Amino acid sequence: MNDSNTVLFRCTECDHTTTDVASLHAHCEKHRGYTRFGIQIPFTRTSAGDFNALMEYTDVLRVEDTTKISLKDIDRLTDESGGEDE
């Protein structure tokens, strides 16, 4: 099955993968820091994310083939990976 409309977003620092680019960028903030000095400060309405800088931490992967799996397979994959990432 070819599902060329589906993409995954992967963090280049730790391979965290998701289907939601906004979620990935929130994750990537912990790798890049919020200030030019690399100091992480709380994210507020006035501290807008830098999309271009966050894209440097983002691999975009197109799903070219899919395989149907059972719920047991999902449990096994989760156990092998040590649970879900943050």
From TrEMBL:
Source species taxonomy: Archaea, Methanobacteriati, Methanobacteriota, Stenosarchaea group, Halobacteria
Domain C2H2-type, first and last residues per copy: 9-36
Domain of life: Archaea
Species in which this protein is naturally found: Natronococcus occultus SP4
Identification of the protein by name: C2H2-type domain-containing protein
